Amino acid sequence: MSNVLDTFEQRGFVEQVTDRAELSSALDAPMTCYIGFDPTASSLHVGSLVPIMSLAHMQRAGHRPIAVVGGGTTLVGDPSGKTEMRKLMSREEINRNAEGIKKQLSRFLDFGSEKALMVNNADWLCDLNYIEFLRDIGRHFSVNRMLAAESYKVRLESGLSFIEFNYMLLQAYDYWHLFKHYECRLQMGGNDQWGNILAGADLIRRMEGEVVHALTFPLITTSSGIKMGKTHKGAVWLDPELTPPYDYYQYWINQDDKDVERFLALFTFLPLEDVKRLGALKGEGIREAKDVLAFEATALCHGEGEAEKARSAARELFGGGGSESSESVPTCTIGAQELEQGLAAYLLFEKCGLCKTRGEARRLLSQGGGYVNGKRIDAFDEVVGSKDLANGSILLRAGKKKYVRVTLS
């Protein structure tokens, strides 16, 4: 069995690690690790894929991953990477979000027979006695050291609330709790969590006299410097109701050529020799690599069936096929009466989400970037209506790659 730390380093997962030699040696035997996920939304997004994939690699290497849903810590709010205080959420909203997160993680992790665990830190944090917590846990923390942490230093300039100041203690307590109850000896997370993770490792050392480990991931950005998972439409969600599988597939296939090899290593389980072969392709050949990236990433998140549908729809559209069988393409429904009367093209493009605003739609169409059923629209106010229906739908295209199928409601 290869050491998973070697896999992490070869694939680009590692930013910082407490003691590389010690951790590598410890990972020669089965180990329990954990990563926390804050349920601040009903779905995780592409920006969460590095930690998710790391847990999946750990499980494939024979280790036991724990996904900790921060039902308790989300009631406080993590100041890391934020310039202002997060909106505080109710327990009911947090619990609903946690259910959606577990469903998404189940695509990547096998939770059967306790091969992986999902726990909610509200179960042990919400019933803590504050005075006992201060005496037993708080006494191990130096305020001077806490203020030196990057997550706190940044916030001191804009204002750090006392409730947020407690976050490091709570996350450290999580690590101690998981060590005591699950023999967890490795916490992983984004590099902005380095200070919080070290605080947990130090707490375990002080309270238990045991050495545990920390590993953080780099912030993943595209070659253009954009944070992973951000698009002109907003976040790319793992929930198919928020980002349909076709859109998810398109997100990956539209990545810059420079990012393909790196993303194949991070976001698929393809052997590294295949990653390097695909990454070395140039010119027209890079399309094959992008197709593999899009298919593998979509299959992991949504299953092979949805990945096949998305790939077939994309090939049909970009190969010049019609709209009638492109069921995976995003769909916009319009009332029969409204379509009978007809809509100005720029209004329809805005209504169907191909453009954010009417002004953007006017510019796109005036520059010849809009199409109806493969025919270029000549004027931004050209009327599109029921006369344009072909086999019950109308295929709209913005630029070269954005499609929407209009159907009757």
**CATH architectural type of the largest domain:** 3-Layer(aba) Sandwich
Report the CATH C-level class of the largest domain: Alpha Beta
Assign the structural class, choosing from mainly alpha, mainly beta, alpha/beta, alpha+beta, or little secondary structure.
alpha/beta
Uncertain parts: 81-85, 320-325
* CATH H level, superfamily name of the largest domain: HUPs
CATH topology of the largest domain: Rossmann fold
**Biggest sheet descriptor:** 6 strands, mixed
The total of beta strands comes to: 15
Shape: elongated
In terms of DSSP E residues, the strand content is: 5-15%
How much helix, percentage-wise, in residues? 40-55%
Number of helices: 19
